[in-house]
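Re: weekly structure request thread

Next one in the queue (145 aa):
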Amino acid sequence: MNPQRAQGDVFSPQKRSEIMRAVRARDTKPEIALRKALFAMGFRYRLNVKTLPGKPDIVFPGYRSVIFVHGCFWHGHDCARGDRTPKTNTEYWRAKIANNRKRDHAAIVALQRQKWSVKISWECDLKDVRGEAIKIAGWLKSRID
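Done, posted below.
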């Protein structure tokens, strides 16, 4: 067995590196689907505003509200998809996901201190994109009532 290959990993280190580089931080399929649904409902927004803590995925300046679109696995969601740890290199993955959650929490707290309203749309909730968009529309409208 190749000593550089993680036990149980079917890919070479080079191939695994290529796969991991392809993981996107923005413009993911769930994020694009949600943005399209919100745009179709008449909402306008900004994307990945660098001046805000955590660089939120979708920003509604007029509502002073932001949305983070989180992948269940990467952000440790309490659902079937997010509640699984890879069988190899488990300590690395546990630490990585724990750090992601800490960073997420710090960004949310910082945004709330700046009087921003924060919503997280989880990947599993976006199986019904229209339903999630309707919930977000209600949430946004409640911000101006």
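The CA atoms of residues 23 and 56 lie 18 Å apart. Confidence is low (pLDDT under 50) at residues 1-5.
Next request, please.
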